[in-house]
Automatic annotation (TrEMBL):
<dbReference type="GO" id="GO:0016020">
    <property type="term" value="C:membrane"/>
</dbReference>
<dbReference type="Pfam" id="PF19335">
    <property type="entry name" value="HMBD"/>
</dbReference>
<dbReference type="GO" id="GO:0046914">
    <property type="term" value="F:transition metal ion binding"/>
</dbReference>
<dbReference type="GO" id="GO:0030288">
    <property type="term" value="C:outer membrane-bounded periplasmic space"/>
</dbReference>
<feature type="transmembrane region" description="Helical">
    <location>
        <begin position="7"/>
        <end position="28"/>
    </location>
</feature>
<feature type="domain" description="CusB-like three alpha-helical bundle">
    <location>
        <begin position="160"/>
        <end position="209"/>
    </location>
</feature>
<keyword id="KW-0406">Ion transport</keyword>
<dbReference type="InterPro" id="IPR006143">
    <property type="entry name" value="RND_pump_MFP"/>
</dbReference>
<dbReference type="GO" id="GO:0060003">
    <property type="term" value="P:copper ion export"/>
</dbReference>
<dbReference type="GO" id="GO:0015679">
    <property type="term" value="P:plasma membrane copper ion transport"/>
</dbReference>
<feature type="domain" description="Heavy metal binding">
    <location>
        <begin position="45"/>
        <end position="72"/>
    </location>
</feature>
<dbReference type="Pfam" id="PF25954">
    <property type="entry name" value="Beta-barrel_RND_2"/>
</dbReference>
<keyword id="KW-0813">Transport</keyword>
<dbReference type="InterPro" id="IPR045800">
    <property type="entry name" value="HMBD"/>
</dbReference>
<dbReference type="Pfam" id="PF25919">
    <property type="entry name" value="BSH_CusB"/>
</dbReference>
<feature type="domain" description="CusB-like barrel-sandwich hybrid">
    <location>
        <begin position="125"/>
        <end position="242"/>
    </location>
</feature>
<feature type="domain" description="CusB-like beta-barrel">
    <location>
        <begin position="246"/>
        <end position="323"/>
    </location>
</feature>
Amino acid sequence: MASLKYTATIISSLIVGGVISLAAYHYMNAAGSAASPSAERKVLFWYDPMKPDTKFDKPGKSPFMDMDLVPKYADEGDAQNGNGIRIDPTLVQNLGLKTEKVSKGRLQYSQTIPANVSFNDYQFVIVQARSDGFVEKVYPLTLGDKVKKGTPLIDITIPQWVEAQSEYLLLSATGGSATQVKGILERLRLAGMPEEDIQRLRGSRTVQTRFTIRAPIDGVITAFDLRSGMNISKDKVVAQIQGMDPVWISAAVPESIAYLLKDTSQFTISVPAYPDRTFSIEKWSILPSADQTTRTLQVRLQVDNRDEVLKPGMNAYLKLDTQSPEMLLIPSQAVIDTGNEQRVITVDGDGRFVPKAIRVLHESQRQTGVGGGLQEGESVVVSGLFLIDSEANITGALERMRHAQTPEAMAPGMVMPSADAHSGH
C-alpha cells in the first residue's frame, strides 16, 4: 500500500512540473515575440543629406548626388526634448565632421597698415613784420627751400621803428626817466623790431633804418611770396616755415583694437624708399575722433628725422604686433554668423549636436575670442556644418533650440539664434 502511495506522489509531481514548464515556455516565447520587433530600429524615411527636404520611402541611390540614401530612424528623437540632434556615427565619419576644444589663450595681432609721412605741426612758424613798411631786398629763396635758424629772408624799412628809435635816443640824451626809456624799448619789441637790432641800438646809439627779418627755426619754407619794392602791411605774412625733425607718421587703425595699443614697442615703421632702415619712434598718440565711415582711429607717431631722409608726403607702413588679454578661443571657422547674431554647434557628452549662442569679442589669425556662451574644454564643430544643418532641417532641432533659449537665460550681449544659421557659412 505504501508502495502505491509513493508511486502516485511521483506521478503527481511530474505532472505539475510539466504544467509549470509548459507555462514558462509559453510566457518566455510570448515575451521574446514582443521584444523582437522593438529590437529593430524603425526607419521613418530615407533622405539625401545634400538635399534633406526630399524624403523617400525606400533605400537606394540618390537622384541628386552619386551617393546612397540615408535612413532616418524613429529613435533619433533627442531633438524633440530640446537637447540637440543625433547623427549616425557612420555618416559623421564619412563626411569628415571635425571638432576642436574651446581653449584659453591670447589673440595675437600682427597687422601692417598703410601710413604717410607729414610735417610736424608743433614746429610751424609764421613770420611777420608786425608793422607797415617797405621791402628793400628779398633774399633768393622760394617754396620748398630748407633754411637754418637765422637765415635772412628780407630786408625792410619800417618808419614806425625809425621814429621810436629817435625818441629813445632823445630821452636818453636829455635825462628821461628809466621808466620812459624802458617803455620805448618795449614798444619797439611789441612793434616787431628784432631783439638783436634793439641791442644794437642800445650799444651804438645810432638810428637804424634798414632791418633784416630772419628765419626763427630750422625748416622748410612753405609760403613766401614777397618781392623787392613791395609795400608790406603789419599783418602781411613774410614766410611760413615748417620743421623737419621730428616728422609725423599717421595711420588709420580699426577702432576695435584701440584698447590693445599700449606703448611704442608694439609699432614698427617701414618706408619703401628705405627698405633696409629702421626708424626711432619718440612718442605716439591716438587722436580723439573716429572716422564714422571707416570706423577707424588715427594713430600719430612722432619719428626721429635728424638726417631728414623722411619727406612729408612719403608712403610708409605701420606694423602692429600686440596681443589681447586672456580669453576663451575657438577656431574662426566654427562661428556661424548671420550678420546680426553668432553661434556655434557644440557636442555634448552623449554625442548630441547642440547649437549655442555666443558673444564674439575679437578675431585674429583664424582664431576668435569669445566673451560668453561657452566654457573651456567644450567641443565645437569646425567642419561639416552642412551635415548638422541637414539634420536640423529634418528634425527642426535648431529652431526648437532657438525658442528654448529665453533672453533671461542668455548672457548679456548675446543674440538669439535663428534656424537659418548656416547661411553664415
